[in-house]
Amino acid sequence: MDQQKIDVLLSIKVWDPKPWVEGLSQSTYINQVHLWPTEADLSQVSGLFVWKPLDEGVVQKLPNLKWVSSLGAGVDHLVNDQQIPSDIPVTRIVDPFLTRDMTNYCIMGVLMHQRSMQAHWQNQQKAIWNRLSYSSLKVGVLGLGELGGHCASTLAQLGFEVLGYSRTPKQLPGVQCFNGGELKQFLAPLDVLINLLPVTPHTVDILNLDLFEQIKEGAFLINVARGNHLVENDLLLALDSGRLSGALLDVFREEPLPSGHPFWKHQKIRITPHVASVTTPQSAMQLVLENTKRLIEGRDLLHKVNREAGY
After folding, report:
1. Which of 59, 191, 248, 304 has its CA 20 to 30 A from that of 293?
2. pLDDT tens digits for range 188-199
3. By three-state DSSP, how is residue 23 classified?
4. Phi then psi for 47, rounded to 5 degrees?
5. Do the Cβ atoms of 50 and 78 come closer than 8 Å?
6. How many Å separate Cα 199 from the centre of its chain?
7. Per-residue DSSP letter, 232
């Protein structure tokens, strides 16, 4: 590109856009920052920065669009959006703080399950002194990409026996890795299953009753990837039958989770409101600005998404 600055459009539905607008506006690579919705002329916008689904018709207002960036690690809200032409590159955020925070959340979930913290808190309310025992756990991480690989490796460093599964072969120190047709072998010995898969046509509904029945009875589920990985009724059946001992859920098919949803009051389910790992503007913005510079200079963008693969 010949120009030295570009116009960008921000479309952010669930975060405060102010830090993004202020930070991007100070960049020497950006001429003007627009915030959707707007009636302004968007004909010179080259970069579209998005978190959560785009409103219908947004891309039609951007005849000069050259690049779309997710403002988080997830890209499922973009790869399936028919508004975005197939020749427009889509990128995602790969941020060490985002990765660290996701791993820390998963470690928290594993340790709270291992140490029966819920039971300890219930005993506290009744003034019961009961020294509950704990044992070593086999922890499985489903998905060994940027987030899953870091999570599996860190758990292994903490002394857990860790198994990992990915679509293609991976090698991680201290992690027994499975791939392809080895899902059954991966699942069979697990005490805890952590889902960190991307959303693709092959992974939607993967957390279902058939999968739960392949895990060791009494296993614990942690889902921090996406809500549409999980067949919700199948989880309820697995919990009520004792096939699973409990679940920690941070993501849901519908967010916010409806107030009448059975997950809220289920005794074996713990819920957090999609906060396992939240993009930090100050950190993630550095990658966005680096890619803005690369776009202007005609270089390859970092962390481009394979839209056919879905990640």
Report:
1. 59
2. 999 999 999 999
3. helix
4. -120, 130
5. yes
6. 9
7. H
- Give the C-alpha separation, 114 to 192, whole Å: 9
Burial of 60 (0-12, 13-18, 19+ CB in 10 A): exposed
Give dist(CA 143, CA 122) in Å, integer: 34
Question: What one-character-per-residue DSSP string does 134-176 give?
Answer: ----EEEEE--SHHHHHHHHHHHHTT-EEEEEESS---BTTEE
**pLDDT computed for residue 2 by the predictor:** 44
Among the options 229, 243, 270, 274, which is catalytic? 274
**Residue 308 in contact with residue 286, Cβ under 8 Å?**
no
pTM reported for the whole predicted model: 0.91
- Decide the pairing of beta strands 30-35 and 244-249: unpaired
DSSP states along 47-98:
EEEEESPPPTTTGGG-TT--EEEESSS--HHHHT-TTS-TTS-EE----HHH
Phi, psi at 158, each rounded to 5°: -80, -5
pLDDT in tens, 165-184: 999 999 999 999 999 999 99
In terms of C-beta density within 10 A (0-12 exposed, 13-18 middle, 19 or more buried), how is residue 80 classed? middle
Which residue of the set 113, 226, 229, 270 is catalytic?
A: 226
| pLDDT bucket at 3, cuts 50 / 70 / 90 | low
226 is catalytic: yes
